[in-house]
Design brief:
Shape: globular
Strand content: 5-15%
Keywords: Aminotransferase, Pyridoxal phosphate, Transferase
CATH class of the largest domain: Alpha Beta
CATH topology of the largest domain: Aspartate Aminotransferase, domain 2
Bound molecules: pyridoxal-5'-phosphate
Radius of gyration: 22 Å
Structural class: alpha/beta
Helix content: 25-40%
Family: Belongs to the DegT/DnrJ/EryC1 family.
Distance between the termini: 24 Å
Protein name: DegT/DnrJ/EryC1/StrS family aminotransferase
Pfam family, one: DegT_DnrJ_EryC1
GO molecular function, one term: transaminase activity
Order of helices and strands: HHEHEHEHEHEEEEEHHHEEHEEHEH
Length: 400
């Protein structure tokens, strides 16, 4: 089949002349890497989420690495998390020499099932790394309560959750306001707010924040900016092993514009998600994602569960033939080759729901410039998938 009409990508970042102008300003300033723009972006992001500290880094994976190291995760320790996530979640645990311990996701949703955490705890458990998957807040209140009960720090993988909100003591708060110990954000182009690549750590803990700032710049005692501005000669020292995890000023300048746009992006996505929900509700067997009463997602991804009998790949191919890009459900880390062997992870209980979510769900196109017509085009194709693929007999030997 030849695709006709417009192509609908699964996601598309939105940037224009404003970001271009911001980068131009930085290029001409002569200060390219971590400097005044990073500092300004950090304070604006901290104010946006309501955190005392925000520290910018090169991406969310490096943010996760620093966060886990700050709460004391090291060689031989265990960190409880989900397999149903992007691989970087678990990779960051292994960078610390620790072992990811995978628990399953909740029934009906795509986030960690808090009731499974306590049984996965051992004397080696040094942190819980929860994920706000696809921007949907996980049950942070329950997870933080478990962390308190067992004296285990909680780190949030908030890679997808810039601008997502959670109800806390009757008030809506942004993800990143310190309720757990540290939250880590991503600014990859697949997320709502992008700087090309980039990450941010938010925390209420000044000691953690000081560690992030030391470690992100080679463990150097004096930041470049301070040395540069000093009227006296300064010799720096290197008290600890550090990394080069800096964000550049070019990225931060883009991030400041994007942060300004974020509430508008989210409002538009909420409108489109509501359109999807209304339409998808009319197709038997399809399950639209649901926000718990205490959560407001930024709709980073709109992930729909297909009927059990519908082959995921066939459905995705039908949509692709009509110029519509989709992605399958979030990966399961424990089934990747990089996670083969007992030394790479431990599974606590069954991961059946995680596997089912990967194999039964698909992510539909959603981006702020998408039109209502685009939504209808996607939904029409989905309806055809359910109707035509459902009635097709299985090919000989084809396993479903
Ligand atoms: C995107 C993503 C990451 C990695 O973010 P980078 O900024 O690309 O390093 C980590 N965790 C989750 C859940 C993600 O979606």
């Amino acid at each position: 089949m030849t695709p006709t009409g417009t192509q609908i990508p699964v996601a598309r970042p939105f940037l224009d002349e404003q970001e271009t102008e911001a980068v131009r300003r930085v290029v001409l300033s002569g200060w390219l890497t971590q400097g005044p723009e990073v500092e300004a972006f950090e304070s604006e992001f901290a104010a946006f989420v309501g955190a005392r500290h925000a520290c910018a880094v090169s991406n969310c994976t490096t943010a996760l690495h620093l966060a886990l190291q700050a709460v004391g995760v090291g060689a031989g320790d265990e960190v409880i998390t989900v397999s149903h996530s992007f691989i970087a979640t678990a990779n960051a645990i292994r960078y610390c020499g620790a072992l990811p311990v995978f628990v399953d996701i909740e029934a009906g949703g795509f986030n960690i099932d808090p009731t499974l955490i306590a049984d996965a705890i051992t004397p080696r458990t040094k942190a819980i790394l929860c994920v706000h998957q696809m921007g949907m807040p996980c049950d942070l209140a329950s997870i933080v309560a478990i962390g308190k009960r067992f004296s285990i720090p909680v780190v949030e993988d908030a890679a997808c959750a810039s601008g997502s909100e959670i109800l806390w003591d009757g008030q809506w708060e942004k993800i990143g306001k310190p309720r757990a110990d540290i939250a880590c954000f991503s600014f990859h182009p697949r997320k709502l707010l992008t700087t090309g690549d980039g990450g941010m750590l938010t925390t209420g803990n000044s000691e953690y924040d000081a560690k992030f700032r030391l470690w992100r710049q080679h463990g150097m005692s004096v930041p470049d900016t301070v040395r540069h501005g000093s009227k006296r000669v300064i010799f720096e020292s290197y008290p600890e092993l550090g990394y080069n995890y800096r964000m550049t000023d070019l990225q931060a300048a883009i991030g400041r514009i994007q942060l300004h746009r974020l509430p508008g992006f989210i409002a538009e996505r909420r409108r489109l998600a509501e359109r999807y929900r209304q339409q998808i509700g009319q197709i038997a067997g399809l399950e639209a994602p649901v926000e718990p009463s205490w959560a407001r997602t930024n709709w980073q991804s709109y992930c729909v569960r297909l009927p059990q009998w519908l082959d995921q790949r066939d459905a995705m191919q039908l949509l692709l033939d009509r110029g519509i890009s989709t992605r399958r459900g979030v990966m399961t880390i424990h089934r990747e080759k990089a996670y083969a062997g007992d030394h790479t992870h431990r599974v606590a209980g069954s991961l059946a729901r995680s596997v089912a979510a990967q194999e039964n769900a698909i992510i539909l196109p959603l981006f702020s410039q998408m039109t209502d017509t685009d939504v209808l085009t996607v939904v029409d194709a989905l309806q055809d998938a359910v109707e035509t693929l459902g009635s097709r007999p299985l090919k000989a030997g084809q396993a479903h």
